[in-house]
């Protein structure tokens, strides 16, 4: 929450550097309502920005060095020379997103000078809510604003995506785009090929619930990049640029030329793109029944075809479905292999969902879940303090 992380970062900055910061940037995490693993297939996604995010406060230090303090990572520090060459820190993962952002911005010919920085974020780590995107976008927006670089927000998002690639995850463009360009009270339909953005108002009679399974996910691992390769392979077999261009008829025509896993990966993406567009329509009409049908179909497709859910997450989805009864709009959100579930619910049903999770989740997982009530928030923000 902006106020909370702003206060924490200002206080830590002052204590550490002995003076007041002059600038603040903030960018939120996100929850994806529907459209999973479609972004790097040039398809559609429907995320919204959440109430948690990353604040960075800064002051020019008159040197060529970035000197950084990560408040929530045990007050770890790091420093590096501003340069167009990315040099990774061996252990400080958080620092590498900032190191990469500076290098990539300087590679575009922009001038960046030394800053003292304190960073504080409250996006839960490993929850599938894009803590790293919020860090990248917050920092990119800070640099652009302080040094008058005028980098458009969507270009900052693309640079954030490139930071992830430098750090080993060949992710799509969803997380950084929503973190940069989110608007309060709206989800964002992103066409990940044209990068055209369409705001889709969230019906005012619906709440967004995020339930963190507290089984940590990490995308800087092989599974994500492997899924991407499988999708690219399927597109190649069908002779299309990306799975966005394929239909189920085209896929079925080539079924004999691919293994079952490749077929199912492609089926997930092709059907998921359709579901996103149908869900957008349902949102526009406040049609919770159709939204519920599409979100649960999305979950089953991630579970059975894309194989990115885990038993704890599947269990949570079923607990929530049972608690809501009819019109349960619920699915896993984010990259997968742990993380969170998202539900779009009528406010009156929130207490029964919470009660069911409290009563049932620990039995199947040995863990407690964390429930986050949010609505759609604004994207990146900058101000002089
Ligand atoms: C992660 C990636 C995104 C997207 C999702 C899955 O969040 O960063 O680009 O691929 O997984 O939809």
UniProtKB/TrEMBL annotation:
State the species of origin: Candidatus Anaerobiospirillum pullicola
- What Enzyme Commission number(s) apply to this enzyme? 2.7.1.6
Occurrences of domain GHMP kinase C-terminal (ranges): 280-362
Q: Which GO terms describe its cellular component?
A: cytosol
**Gene Ontology MF term list:** ATP binding; galactokinase activity; metal ion binding
What PANTHER family does the database record attribute to this sequence? GALACTOKINASE-RELATED, MEVALONATE KINASE/GALACTOKINASE
| GHMP kinase N-terminal domain mapped to chain residues | 96-183
For this protein, the parts annotated as crossing the membrane are none
Transcription regulation recorded as keyword: no
Broad EC category: transferase
Name this protein carries in UniProt: Galactokinase
Q: What does the similarity note say?
A: Belongs to the GHMP kinase family. GalK subfamily.
> PROSITE patterns given for it?
GALACTOKINASE, GHMP_KINASES_ATP
């Amino acid at each position: 929450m902006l106020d909370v992380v702003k206060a924490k970062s200002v206080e830590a900055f002052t204590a550490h550097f002995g003076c007041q910061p002059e600038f603040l940037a903030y960018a939120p995490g996100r929850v994806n309502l529907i459209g999973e693993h479609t972004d790097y297939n040039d398809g559609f996604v429907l995320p919204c920005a959440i109430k948690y995010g990353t604040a960075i406060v800064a002051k020019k230090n008159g040197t060529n060095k970035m000197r950084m303090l990560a408040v929530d990572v045990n007050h770890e520090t790091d420093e590096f020379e501003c340069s167009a060459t990315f040099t990774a820190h061996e252990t400080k993962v958080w620092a590498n997103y900032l190191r990469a952002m500076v290098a990539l911005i300087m590679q575009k010919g922009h001038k960046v000078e030394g800053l003292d920085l304190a960073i504080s974020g409250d996006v839960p780590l490993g929850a599938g809510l894009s803590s790293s995107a919020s860090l990248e976008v917050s920092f990119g927006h800070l640099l652009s604003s302080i040094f008058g670089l005028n980098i458009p927000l969507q270009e900052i998002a693309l640079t954030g995506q490139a930071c992830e690639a430098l750090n080993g995850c060949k992710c799509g463009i969803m997380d950084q785009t929503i973190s940069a360009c989110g608007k309060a009270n709206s989800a964002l339909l992103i066409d990940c090929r044209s990068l055209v953005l369409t705001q889709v108002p969230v019906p005012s009679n619906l709440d967004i619930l995020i339930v963190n399974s507290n089984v940590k996910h990490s995308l800087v691992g092989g599974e994500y990049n492997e899924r991407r390769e499988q999708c690219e392979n399927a597109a190649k077999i069908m002779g299309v640029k990306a799975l966005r261009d394929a239909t189920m008829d085209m896929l079925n025509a080539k079924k004999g030329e691919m293994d079952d896993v490749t077929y199912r990966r492609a089926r997930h993406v092709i059907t998921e793109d359709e579901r996103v567009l149908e869900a957008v329509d349902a949102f526009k009409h406040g049609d919770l029944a159709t939204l519920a049908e599409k979100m649960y179909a999305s979950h089953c497709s991630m579970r059975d075809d894309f194989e990115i859910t885990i038993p704890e997450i599947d269990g949570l989805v079923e607990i929530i479905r049972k608690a809501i009864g009819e019109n349960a709009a619920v699915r896993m959100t984010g990259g997968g292999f742990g993380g969170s579930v998202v539900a779009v619910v009528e406010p009156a049903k929130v207490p029964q969902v919470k009660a069911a999770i409290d009563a049932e989740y620990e039995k199947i997982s040995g863990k407690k879940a964390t429930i986050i009530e949010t609505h759609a928030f604004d994207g990146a923000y900058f101000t002089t303090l």
